[in-house]
Write a structure and sequence with these properties.
The chain has one domain: Flavin prenyltransferase-like (Rossmann fold, 3-Layer(aba) Sandwich). Helix content is about 35%, strand content about 20%. It has helices spanning about 15-30, 40-45, 50-65, 70-75, 95-100, 105-115, 135-145, 170-180, and strands spanning about 5-10, 35-40, 85-90, 120-130, 150, 155, 165. Strands 1, 2, 3, 4, 5, 6 and 7 form a 7-stranded mixed β-sheet that branches. Helix 1 packs parallel to helix 3 (about 50-65) and helix 5 (about 95-100) crosses helix 7 (about 135-145).
Length: about 190
């Protein structure tokens, strides 16, 4: 997987950052150049899961790159063909809805729009409490969109959060390899 440049966009599912950030390190260990991207909320919001500045610092240290976090930062992704693949993980229900509707009002959603103009793969790692309710139609729509692929996912707590789904972030390298070959990794439902 040498010579691959992957954008890695994080949105506000803060509870999964501790799972996602080690996977970014894993990608860099595989020789992949990772360009970190964060939505404004992910970039600026402190939560019970950690301080925003600490997550930003971790991403800088792991990737050796500044985090793209504004619309102006993300805009050149398409015109300059900066990425081979764009991974959005965690991808919230809000971001899923915006991608489905073609709304580009954050660094992450503009990165997706800009990257797709080159007909290159976008890999989505769902993390939302409403995946099997209000977000289900957006997931279904994106499953049918050309150049959009998913990291395999499962219900994360069917007893207490029956509509919640989260991607298996450990499958990012395999899902990325499949997406770069124009294929959806299977099985998608775990």
């Amino acid at each position: 997987m040498d010579q691959i440049t992957a954008g890695f966009a994080l949105t506000g599912s803060f509870c999964t950052f501790s799972e996602v950030i080690p996977e970014i390190k894993h990608l860099t260990d595989l020789g992949i150049r990772v360009v970190p991207i964060m939505s404004d909320n992910a970039y600026k919001t402190d939560t019970r899961f950690g301080k925003a500045e600490d997550f930003v610092a971790q991403l800088r240290e792991i990737t050796g790159s500044d985090v793209l976090h504004t619309i102006n930062d993300a805009e050149p992704i398409g015109p300059k063909k900066l990425l081979d693949v764009l991974i959005v993980a965690p991808c919230t229900g809000n971001t899923l809805a915006k991608i489905t509707a073609g709304i580009a009002d954050t660094a992450v959603t503009l990165a997706v729009k800009s990257h797709l103009r080159n007909q290159r793969p976008v890999l989505i790692g769902i993390s939302t409490n409403d995946a099997l309710s209000t977000a289900a139609k957006n997931i279904g729509h994106l499953h049918n969109r050309k150049h959009v692929y998913f990291i395999p996912y499962t219900q994360d707590d069917s007893e207490n959060k029956p509509n919640s789904i989260v991607a298996d972030f450990t499958k990012i390298p395999q899902a990325m390899e499949a997406a770069l070959a124009g294929k959806q990794i299977q099985p998608i439902l775990l």
